[in-house]
Design goal:
Helix content: 25-40%
Strand content: 25-35%
Largest sheet: 3 strands, antiparallel
Shape: globular
Strand order of the largest sheet: 3-4-5
Length: 72
């Protein structure tokens, strides 16, 4: 889950596995796989960063390790 803020200022948790895509239209609009759209006050970058960080936390994407590249 990621935390996002609706336009009315209320926070909500959103299951990131249900997110199809995120757009700035100009408000940040999150489209779920069901087709439902959620408009949030968070910026496109903030939502993207929250998604990426949560995916790293649960092991769905790896972390970039500069030390390993430096050793080569």
């Amino acid at each position: 889950m990621i935390s996002v803020t609706r336009l009315n200022g209320r926070s909500m948790l959103l299951n990131l596995l249900l997110i199809e895509h995120v757009e700035a239209l100009p408000d940040t609009t999150i489209t779920l796989v069901s087709g439902k759209k959620i408009i949030v006050a968070d910026s496109l970058e903030d939502v993207g960063n929250a998604i990426n960080q949560r995916m790293r936390d649960i092991g769905l994407i790896g972390s970039y390790k500069q030390q390993e590249l430096d050793k080569e």
